[in-house]
Each structure stands twice: as C-alpha cells, then as structure tokens.
Amino acid sequence: MSHPDVPAWLPAAQLQPAPSPRELDWLDEQGSLTRRLTALSGERFAVEVLAEGWQALRADECAALGVAPGSEGWVREVYLRGAGQPWVFARSVAAREALQRHPFALDRLGSTALGHLLFRDPAFVRQPIEACRYPAALLPPAVRDAGLWGRRSLFCQGALGVLVAEVFLPALWRADAATSA
C-alpha cells in the first residue's frame, strides 16, 4: 500500500481507473507541452515561477534520478499559465551532484519555459512518460485538489537527468473543452 502523499507513477496505459481519451491525449503528449499550451492559449502563454532553490528531493524523485534517498537538488516549481489562468503546475528537479558535473542553467531560467529548452536541445533524450493521480498535499494551496492527473518524464543528457512533472489543473480542461466544443 502506498502512502497518500507519494505519487504512484505508472505508464499511462496501466492507470486504473483509466483516464478519459481526452485526458490520455494530454498525459501522453510526446511533443512539447509548452508548444501545445501556447497554441491552445492563442499565444497567451506565460510561466509564473512559484519557488526555486536547493532542497532535499522527494523519495520518488531520487529513485527516478538514480541518486541516494535524501539527495539535494535544484527544485523549480511554476505555473504554466494560459490566457491568464494557471493551467499546469510543474515541478522540475535535478540532483546537485549531476548539475555540478554537467552544468545546466536550471537556476537561470526565470520566466522561460524549461520545455522550450529541453525540446530545442537534441542532446537531451526523453525517457518514457509516467502518470498518476497527483497527491493533493504536494500541490500549492491555491490549486490543491484531489484526483488531478499528473505526468512526469526524465530528460537525460549524459549523466545529467532533469525530471519534469506536470499536473493538469481544472482550468486547462475547461479551456480544452471550450476549444473542442
């Protein structure tokens, strides 16, 4: 039995109950989520940095990055906003030891979308996408809600791994439904 505040990441095809076809389409997006959100927002896309800095990584993040439990890393939490509303909560992490060996400007992104950089750099190889119902306790209070779908994937460049998790917020589903209606 898993702890309620630990994401239970699985390949999207193994999720039970299964996401709807529309949800699965977003969860399994293989291209740049930034690009897709920008298009859906009518080019009214923005990144709002909520927090970033060095901190202990969660156990699920350490496991995905292949580092010891409790390892420290750079953590960046942002909202990906469309049409002025938070559509996605994103948490990106990289282990300190990997960043020291393979510098990557994770700490200097500001309002630049990380996905914009990862998809433009062919040296990064994306690992398979995993998804889950993201634990509400791990979300910012303003968007804390039970049962929201999240996904994550690891982008690797040599020994450097950047783990990107994205949680789809209710405003995104409303915007997506409005454009397909």
Report on the structure:
This protein is an alpha+beta fold. Helix content is 25%, strand content 33%. The protein contains 6 helices and 7 strands, in the order H-H-E-H-E-E-H-H-E-E-E-E-H. The chain has helices spanning 21-27, 33-40, 59-65, 96-101, 114-120, 170-180; strands at 45-56, 72-82, 85-95, 125-126, 130-134, 148-157, 160-168. Strands 1, 2, 3, 4, 5, 6 and 7 form a 7-stranded antiparallel beta sheet that branches. The chain is globular and about 50 Å long. The model has no long low-confidence stretch (mean pLDDT 93).
How would you summarize what this structure contains?
The chain is an alpha+beta fold. The protein is built from six helices and seven strands; from the N terminus they run ααβαββααββββα.
Distance between the ends: 40 Å
Structural class: alpha+beta
- Quote the beta fraction: 25-35%
Binned, the helix content reads 25-40%
Give the topology string: H per helix, E per strand: HHEHEEHHEEEEH
Question: What is the approximate shape?
Answer: globular
**Number of separate strands:** 7
What does the radius of gyration come to? 16 Å
Mean pLDDT: 93
- Biggest β-sheet: count, sense, barrel? 7 strands, antiparallel
- Our count of helices gives 6
Q: In terms of per-residue confidence, which ranges show pLDDT below 50 for 5 or more consecutive residues? A: none
